[in-house]
Protein backbone atom coordinates (compact mmCIF):
# COMPACT_ATOMS: atom_id res chain seq x y z
CA UNK A 1 0.00 0.00 0.00
CA UNK A 2 1.69 3.17 -1.20
CA UNK A 3 2.23 5.76 1.49
CA UNK A 4 0.48 5.63 4.83
CA UNK A 5 -2.37 3.13 5.25
CA UNK A 6 -5.84 4.63 5.45
CA UNK A 7 -7.79 4.62 8.69
CA UNK A 8 -10.01 1.84 7.28
CA UNK A 9 -6.92 -0.21 6.43
CA UNK A 10 -5.58 0.23 9.97
CA UNK A 11 -8.87 -0.95 11.46
CA UNK A 12 -8.88 -3.95 9.13
CA UNK A 13 -5.28 -4.82 9.97
CA UNK A 14 -6.06 -4.57 13.67
CA UNK A 15 -8.92 -7.06 13.44
CA UNK A 16 -7.01 -9.47 11.21
CA UNK A 17 -4.11 -9.28 13.65
CA UNK A 18 -6.45 -10.64 16.35
CA UNK A 19 -7.34 -13.72 14.33
CA UNK A 20 -8.03 -14.74 10.73
CA UNK A 21 -11.35 -13.38 9.44
CA UNK A 22 -13.23 -13.02 6.20
CA UNK A 23 -14.00 -9.45 5.08
CA UNK A 24 -17.66 -9.53 6.05
CA UNK A 25 -16.73 -10.69 9.54
CA UNK A 26 -14.35 -7.73 9.70
CA UNK A 27 -17.18 -5.36 8.79
CA UNK A 28 -19.72 -6.82 11.24
CA UNK A 29 -17.12 -6.76 14.04
CA UNK A 30 -16.41 -3.09 13.34
CA UNK A 31 -20.12 -2.35 13.64
CA UNK A 32 -20.59 -4.48 16.77
CA UNK A 33 -17.69 -2.77 18.53
CA UNK A 34 -18.85 0.67 17.55
CA UNK A 35 -15.68 1.30 15.54
CA UNK A 36 -17.79 2.31 12.54
CA UNK A 37 -18.18 5.67 14.31
CA UNK A 38 -14.45 6.29 13.78
CA UNK A 39 -14.55 6.17 9.97
CA UNK A 40 -17.16 5.94 7.28
CA UNK A 41 -17.14 2.24 6.55
CA UNK A 42 -19.32 -0.20 4.64
CA UNK A 43 -18.83 -3.76 3.36
CA UNK A 44 -17.50 -2.49 0.04
CA UNK A 45 -14.86 -0.33 1.72
CA UNK A 46 -13.71 -3.28 3.83
CA UNK A 47 -13.48 -5.63 0.83
CA UNK A 48 -11.54 -2.98 -1.10
CA UNK A 49 -9.16 -2.45 1.83
CA UNK A 50 -8.53 -6.20 2.13
CA UNK A 51 -7.79 -6.45 -1.59
CA UNK A 52 -5.27 -3.61 -1.41
CA UNK A 53 -3.69 -5.02 1.74
CA UNK A 54 -3.33 -8.42 0.05
CA UNK A 55 -1.89 -6.81 -3.08
CA UNK A 56 0.72 -5.04 -0.97
CA UNK A 57 1.65 -8.17 0.98
CA UNK A 58 0.23 -6.96 4.29
CA UNK A 59 -2.41 -9.69 4.58
CA UNK A 60 -2.68 -13.12 3.03
CA UNK A 61 -5.41 -15.66 2.39
CA UNK A 62 -5.15 -18.51 4.87
CA UNK A 63 -8.27 -20.57 4.18
CA UNK A 64 -11.96 -20.61 3.44
CA UNK A 65 -15.06 -21.11 5.52
CA UNK A 66 -18.67 -21.82 4.72
CA UNK A 67 -21.76 -20.79 6.71
CA UNK A 68 -24.86 -22.81 5.80
CA UNK A 69 -25.70 -22.66 2.11
CA UNK A 70 -23.77 -19.45 1.54
CA UNK A 71 -20.76 -19.39 -0.81
CA UNK A 72 -17.36 -20.06 0.69
CA UNK A 73 -15.62 -17.02 2.11
CA UNK A 74 -11.89 -16.48 2.04
CA UNK A 75 -10.30 -15.79 5.41
CA UNK A 76 -7.26 -13.56 5.75
CA UNK A 77 -4.52 -13.06 8.31
CA UNK A 78 -1.90 -10.38 8.82
CA UNK A 79 1.59 -11.04 7.45
CA UNK A 80 4.75 -9.99 9.34
CA UNK A 81 4.95 -6.95 7.05
CA UNK A 82 1.33 -6.13 7.84
CA UNK A 83 1.95 -6.40 11.57
CA UNK A 84 4.93 -4.05 11.27
CA UNK A 85 2.86 -1.60 9.21
CA UNK A 86 0.07 -1.74 11.78
CA UNK A 87 2.51 -0.96 14.59
CA UNK A 88 3.98 2.02 12.77
CA UNK A 89 0.55 3.35 11.82
CA UNK A 90 -0.89 3.08 15.35
CA UNK A 91 2.19 4.77 16.84
CA UNK A 92 1.93 7.57 14.26
CA UNK A 93 -1.79 8.03 14.93
CA UNK A 94 -1.20 8.29 18.67
CA UNK A 95 1.42 11.02 18.23
CA UNK A 96 -0.25 12.70 15.25
CA UNK A 97 -0.05 16.50 15.27
CA UNK A 98 -1.75 17.17 11.95
CA UNK A 99 -4.84 19.36 12.24
CA UNK A 100 -8.20 17.76 11.57
CA UNK A 101 -10.37 19.86 9.31
CA UNK A 102 -14.09 19.71 9.99
CA UNK A 103 -17.12 21.55 8.64
CA UNK A 104 -18.56 22.68 11.98
CA UNK A 105 -15.88 25.33 12.73
CA UNK A 106 -16.44 26.81 9.26
CA UNK A 107 -20.13 27.10 10.06
CA UNK A 108 -19.38 28.78 13.39
CA UNK A 109 -17.00 31.24 11.73
CA UNK A 110 -19.73 32.41 9.36
CA UNK A 111 -22.72 32.03 11.67
CA UNK A 112 -22.84 35.78 12.49
CA UNK A 113 -24.08 36.38 8.95
CA UNK A 114 -27.30 34.44 9.67
CA UNK A 115 -30.34 35.46 11.74
CA UNK A 116 -30.13 34.37 15.36
CA UNK A 117 -33.19 32.11 15.11
CA UNK A 118 -31.68 30.17 12.21
CA UNK A 119 -28.43 29.73 14.11
CA UNK A 120 -30.29 28.59 17.23
CA UNK A 121 -32.34 26.08 15.22
CA UNK A 122 -29.25 24.59 13.57
CA UNK A 123 -27.35 24.40 16.84
CA UNK A 124 -30.34 22.79 18.54
CA UNK A 125 -30.40 20.10 15.86
CA UNK A 126 -26.71 19.47 16.43
CA UNK A 127 -27.10 19.50 20.20
CA UNK A 128 -29.91 16.94 20.17
CA UNK A 129 -28.01 14.64 17.82
CA UNK A 130 -24.80 14.84 19.84
CA UNK A 131 -26.69 14.28 23.09
CA UNK A 132 -28.19 11.10 21.60
CA UNK A 133 -24.74 9.94 20.51
CA UNK A 134 -23.43 10.71 23.98
CA UNK A 135 -26.10 8.62 25.67
CA UNK A 136 -25.59 5.71 23.27
CA UNK A 137 -21.80 5.76 23.66
CA UNK A 138 -22.03 5.97 27.43
CA UNK A 139 -24.32 2.91 27.46
CA UNK A 140 -21.93 1.01 25.18
CA UNK A 141 -18.91 1.77 27.33
CA UNK A 142 -20.71 0.95 30.56
CA UNK A 143 -21.87 -2.36 29.11
CA UNK A 144 -18.40 -3.31 27.84
CA UNK A 145 -16.74 -2.46 31.15
CA UNK A 146 -19.44 -4.27 33.12
CA UNK A 147 -18.74 -7.39 31.03
CA UNK A 148 -15.11 -7.23 32.11
CA UNK A 149 -13.41 -5.53 29.16
CA UNK A 150 -10.27 -3.77 30.49
CA UNK A 151 -10.24 0.00 30.20
CA UNK A 152 -7.27 -0.03 27.81
CA UNK A 153 -9.55 -1.36 25.07
CA UNK A 154 -12.01 1.53 25.31
CA UNK A 155 -9.71 4.55 25.52
CA UNK A 156 -10.93 5.75 22.10
CA UNK A 157 -14.52 5.64 23.30
CA UNK A 158 -13.58 7.24 26.61
CA UNK A 159 -11.95 10.17 24.80
CA UNK A 160 -14.93 10.58 22.48
CA UNK A 161 -17.25 10.49 25.49
CA UNK A 162 -15.33 13.31 27.16
CA UNK A 163 -15.37 15.40 23.98
CA UNK A 164 -19.10 14.82 23.46
CA UNK A 165 -19.87 15.74 27.07
CA UNK A 166 -17.98 19.01 26.67
CA UNK A 167 -19.54 19.83 23.30
CA UNK A 168 -23.10 19.20 24.50
CA UNK A 169 -22.45 21.34 27.59
CA UNK A 170 -20.98 24.11 25.39
CA UNK A 171 -23.92 23.97 22.97
CA UNK A 172 -26.34 24.20 25.90
CA UNK A 173 -24.48 27.28 27.12
CA UNK A 174 -24.48 28.98 23.71
CA UNK A 175 -28.17 28.25 23.14
CA UNK A 176 -29.06 29.56 26.60
CA UNK A 177 -27.04 32.74 26.03
CA UNK A 178 -28.67 33.25 22.64
CA UNK A 179 -32.12 32.84 24.16
CA UNK A 180 -31.64 35.30 27.03
CA UNK A 181 -29.64 37.88 25.05
CA UNK A 182 -26.36 37.36 26.91
CA UNK A 183 -24.84 36.50 23.53
CA UNK A 184 -25.64 39.56 21.44
CA UNK A 185 -26.38 39.00 17.77
CA UNK A 186 -26.58 40.99 14.58
CA UNK A 187 -24.59 43.71 12.90
CA UNK A 188 -20.95 44.04 11.89
CA UNK A 189 -18.02 44.05 14.33
CA UNK A 190 -18.16 47.16 16.56
CA UNK A 191 -16.24 50.27 15.58
CA UNK A 192 -14.17 50.17 18.80
CA UNK A 193 -12.88 46.73 17.85
CA UNK A 194 -12.02 47.79 14.30
CA UNK A 195 -10.20 50.88 15.57
CA UNK A 196 -8.26 48.86 18.15
CA UNK A 197 -7.24 46.34 15.49
CA UNK A 198 -5.99 49.12 13.22
CA UNK A 199 -3.93 50.64 16.06
CA UNK A 200 -2.35 47.28 16.83
CA UNK A 201 -1.49 46.71 13.19
CA UNK A 202 0.05 50.16 13.01
CA UNK A 203 2.29 49.33 15.97
CA UNK A 204 3.33 46.05 14.31
CA UNK A 205 4.12 47.85 11.06
CA UNK A 206 6.16 50.47 12.92
CA UNK A 207 8.23 47.84 14.70
CA UNK A 208 8.55 44.83 12.38
CA UNK A 209 10.21 41.73 13.79
UniProtKB/TrEMBL annotation:
Q: Is-annotated flag, keyword Phosphoprotein? A: no
As recorded in UniProt, coiled-coil segments are 120-147
Q: Which UniProt keywords apply?
A: Coiled coil
Report if keyword Coiled coil is assigned: yes
Q: Which residues form the Transcription regulator PadR N-terminal domain?
A: 12-87
PANTHER family (alphabetical)? PADR-FAMILY TRANSCRIPTIONAL REGULATOR, TRANSCRIPTIONAL REGULATOR PADR FAMILY PROTEIN
Q: What is this protein called?
A: PadR family transcriptional regulator
Task: Tell me the organism.
Answer: Cellulomonas wangleii
Q: What is the lineage of its organism?
A: Bacteria, Bacillati, Actinomycetota, Actinomycetes, Micrococcales
